Amino acid sequence: MSTVKGKQTSSKKKGLNLLSALRRDRSLYLLALPGVLFFLIFKYIPMWGIIIAFQDYSPFRGIQGSEWVGLQHFTALFGNPDFALLFRNTLAISLLNLILFFPFPILISLGLNELRSVAYKRLIQTIIYMPHFLSWVIIAGLTLLLFAKGTGLVNELFTLWGWPRVDILTNPDSFWIMVTLQAMWKEAGWGTIVFLAAMASVDTQLYEAARMDGAGRLRQIWHITLPAIRSVIIVLLILRLGDIMEVGFEQIFLMYNGAVSEVAEVFDTYVYRTGIEQGDFSYSTAVGLFKSVIGLVLVVVANRLVKRMGQEGVY
Amino acid sequence: MQKVEKRNTRNLAWIISVVMVMSVVLSACGSKEEGQVSGSSGNADDPLEVSIMTITPSAVPAADDNVIKRAIEEATNSKMNIQWVSNNIYGDKLNLTLASGDIPDLIMINDPFGSTFTKMVKQGAFWDITPYIKDYTNLSGGIPDIAWDTTKAADGNNYGIPRPRPVTGDSFFIIRKDWLDRLNLQVPETTDELFNVMEAFVEQDPDGNGTKDTTALAAYISPDDLGWGGNLGPVLGAIENSFIGTNSSWKWDESQGKLIYRELLPEVKESLQYLTKAYSRGMMPEDLLSLKLTQARELFKRNQAGIIVDKTGTMRKIYADDLKKVDPSFKYTDFYPLTNLNGYNPKGSGYNGILAIPASVPEEKMKRILQLVDTWMNPEVFEIQQFGIEGTHYEVVDGKKVASSEKLTADNASDFNHIVNVIDLPWDTTGETDEETQANELFKKVEAERDKTSVADLAAGLQSETGQKVLPELNKKIQDLKAKIILGREPIEAWDAFVETLRNDPNFQAMSDEMTEAYKKRNGQ
User: Fold this and answer.
1) C-beta pairs of B209-215 under 8 Å, 24+ apart in sequence
2) Angle A172-200/A136-147 helices, nearest 10 degrees?
3) How far apart are CA B125 and CA B133, in angstroms?
4) Residues B431 and B405 sit within 8 Å (Cβ to Cβ)
5) SS3 breakdown of chain A: % helix, strand, coil, rounded to 5?
6) N or C: which end of chain A has fewer CB within 10 A?
7) Which of residues 466-485 of B touch A (CB under 8 A)?
8) Closest in A59, A149, A278 to B98, CB measured
9) Which residues of A touch B116 (CB under 8 A)?
């Protein structure tokens, strides 16, 4: 009895604490309010829209008037002969991103971190940030200008040197690696920001001490820099896993063509085609929902694993 | 001192947060209000407030206070709130608008047989205007019957006003006449002759610059063109259609007494072999699959390709002016639109999209909208977008209106054709030079010649429920496979295998049966 009573009072106390905390920091909470409202209005309320994945949604009848069909759209998706293909392509592009793209900014940051000349470092940073600000439309256009088989600059050069022309844009064998390299070129520089910031916060005394003990550059990177940014790497990796079913719609859509369709069709482009182009709103919502659920599960599982290994997770 | 400062920062925080909250709340409300305004209809004498969505061909659409818009509004007693959407994204924008349920009072449906629109029509989301047409003289008399017929929904009713277009103006081959003349070639009349011309355009230096740097056909294959010209899109589809002898997806087979889907026809395989051969010999751009419509047009404009597929009348507006910059000797009459190939040329369906009115619009307002379009079609109103405003866009010389096409273009005059267009008025009668007059005469001659052999789509307007479900995916597969065969990635045998699986597909058979039934029903069999 007494323990229960104790709990009640403590929870009451907590409530009081919250109220008084609210009152005390009211301006801070007010500052947070727009953000909270933003997420409520533009992220959480629209989430109700996913219920059309369980309906035969008609815009004319609205959500209230549309017929409920249960899991029909999901069974249609899993029963679709193209499902395996979509899954394979999405996963392949994502994994390539994870294996090739993800470590790339870390490597660049480690290199940049070792540069002694600040001016030179800044210059390089500025140059490698730039592609991030170009839209995918421009990048796709550049790729076309450079690598088109008929008129592309690279192929013109190859002919000049007497080499055979290469086919990159319409070749199913090179599509995955091409989009990965594209993404790396565009985003790797931008990705270094977080890592460089983490590295900047490492205590310089650690390096000095290591140098005194006779550690070379590589030893310092291995034993000081990398452990220092480990938690940042892990957090970003977990967040990245949540996006594993999204491979960047714009990029794939722009590089897509008939000759590479069997390796280029991913969930994102499929949702666009069924939803926007064919007006099959419920079905494409179901596909999108399926995609998000996988992402959510991966994040939760990865977070658990990381915590079990004694690291700090995302939450 | 310190305390005062602290208070100041606190006040600032308050102000900032209040402003931010307000802006979020207000922006959330704003979008809702807009939708409600269009609902009011008001008195019969007040200007009709109407929201419209349609395509704009211009990079910068007409502004709300555009002079021509104002003049049309005054003449038709209306207040138009027009949403201009770029041609490139119209299909997507339309589907999104339909999905939102917040549909403009008059909306241009570019494909009246698209799945979203047909689904919504079945649910009663749009007005059936069939019983009202006869009350409006211009709607019933000014729009050709073929346009009304080919836009009828499955139940035989009209759910929108067709935007009429001439049936003789469909896209077909246009060949550089000066190139033909330079190489002493005849105008091709069969696909084999066309092949020889294309070969000459690649091999014999038609532009006379001493290097072998030309291609023949400004072709491209785009996923946006699914269902267009046998899924290969307008350009390569035109070649395929010439083999089959129709631009329809269906062909009537007398011996079996049913409609046959075009892909099962042996002519499709022949045309694929033809195209594969043409591609391997450089008669079309090597990057066929990565090119977009505008890039393919560039090839022609830059004097690098000798053949395009487009509407006859587009030559002057889209290509010739640019071409003259590269090749100053080029004349407006230096193009030869083919009148037929293998004895075939396509007959248009007589319309380009329909204007539909959502059922949420009350009957009285719906009638006023029909009245608006009807009044707009009166010559004195339509002339506003044709000639503009006296003193600003045109002067009357010897009793004839002479307009400045530059000023008309600057004021987006012809954009309004994408809402209401009258087809029997001559297209361009403004300030013509001799060269332009000759070009127009040639163009009229070509159209008259085409009229003799043109073939209409016999299945236009026919629908099958199964087809609506399976065709989008099927069309995509067909395009991908055809593209791969043309590029030489797949052997022609892959096509035979595909056709065989198609034949045995129960969905495909159901679609064929439904189409045959619909066809028989319409033809009273």
Assistant:
1) B213/B304, B214/B303, B214/B304, B214/B305, B214/B306, B215/B282, B215/B283, B215/B284, B215/B285, B215/B299, B215/B304, B215/B305
2) 130
3) 19
4) yes
5) 80, 0, 20
6) N
7) 472-473, 476, 479-480, 482-484
8) A59
9) 278-279
ipTM for this prediction: 0.76
> What does the alpha-carbon distance between residue A167 and residue A150 come to, in Å, rounded to a whole number?
9
Q: Phi and psi dihedrals of A58, rounded to 5?
A: -125, 125
Taking CB atoms and an 8 Å cutoff, what residues of chain A touch B15? none
Q: Apex CA B93: angle with CA B89 and CA B94, to 5°? A: 115
Structure tokens at B397: 């010389």
Report DSSP state, residue B58: S
> Which positions 124-143 of B are in contact with A (Cβ < 8 Å)?
124-125
Rounded distance between C-alpha atoms, residue A94 and residue A247, angstroms: 6
Distance of CA A46 to the CA centre of its chain: 21
- For residue B482, the chain A residue with the least C-alpha distance is A258
Distance from CA of A269 to the nearest CA of B (A): 12
How far is Cα B65 from Cα B251, in angstroms, rounded to an integer? 50
Q: How far apart are CA B87 and CA A84, in angstroms?
A: 35
Q: From A41, which residue of chain B is nearest by alpha-carbon distance?
A: B28
DSSP string across A213-278? TT--HHHHIIIIIHHHHHHHHHHHHHHHHHTTT---HHHHHHH--GGGHHHH--HHHHHIIIIIIT
Q: Find the chain A residues whose C-beta atoms sit closer than 8 A to any C-beta of B.
A: 27-28, 30-31, 33-34, 37-38, 41, 58-62, 82, 144, 148-152, 169-170, 256-259, 261-262, 273-274, 276-281
Strand partners of residue B403: B394
Q: Looking at the whole model, is its pTM more than 0.95?
A: no
Q: Is B99 on the interface with A (CB under 8 A)?
A: yes
Closest C-alpha to B416, from B11, B56, B77 = B56
| Angstrom distance (rounded) from CA B469 to CA A37 | 41
Distances (CA, A) of A184 to A91, A159, A178, A189, B138: 17, 27, 10, 8, 60
List Cβ<8 Å contacts ≥24 apart for B312-316: B312/B169, B312/B172, B312/B174, B312/B337, B312/B443, B312/B446, B312/B447, B313/B169, B313/B427, B313/B443, B315/B174, B315/B439, B315/B443, B316/B436, B316/B439
pLDDT tens for chain A, 315 residues: list them.
Answer: 444 444 444 555 566 678 888 888 888 989 999 999 999 998 888 888 888 899 888 877 888 888 898 899 999 899 888 899 999 999 999 999 999 999 999 999 999 988 888 899 999 999 999 999 999 999 999 998 899 887 889 988 998 999 988 888 888 899 999 999 999 999 999 999 999 999 988 888 998 999 898 888 889 999 899 998 988 999 888 888 888 888 888 999 989 888 888 899 999 999 888 887 777 888 999 998 999 898 889 889 888 988 888 777 777
Q: Which amino acid type is present at position B292?
A: K
Long-range contacts of A100-103 (CB under 8 A, 24+ apart): A100/A180, A100/A184, A101/A180, A101/A183, A101/A184, A101/A187, A101/A188, A102/A236, A102/A237, A102/A240
The candidate with the shortest Cα–Cα distance to B505, out of B466, B472, B468, B476, is B466
Alpha-carbon distance A157 to nearest alpha carbon in chain B (angstroms): 16
Query: Are residues A170 and B472, on separate chains, in Cβ contact within 8 Å?
Result: no
Question: How far is residue B349's CA from residue A45's CA, in Å, rounded to a whole number?
Answer: 45
Instruction: Report which secondary-structure segment, H or E, holds A293.
Output: helix A281-308
What secondary structure does DSSP assign to B448-483, as a single string? Answer: HHHHHHEE--TTTT---HHHHHHHHHHHHHHHHHHH
Q: How far apart are CA B456 and CA B113, in angstroms?
A: 17
- HSE-up of residue B282 (Cα within 13 Å, Cβ side): 14
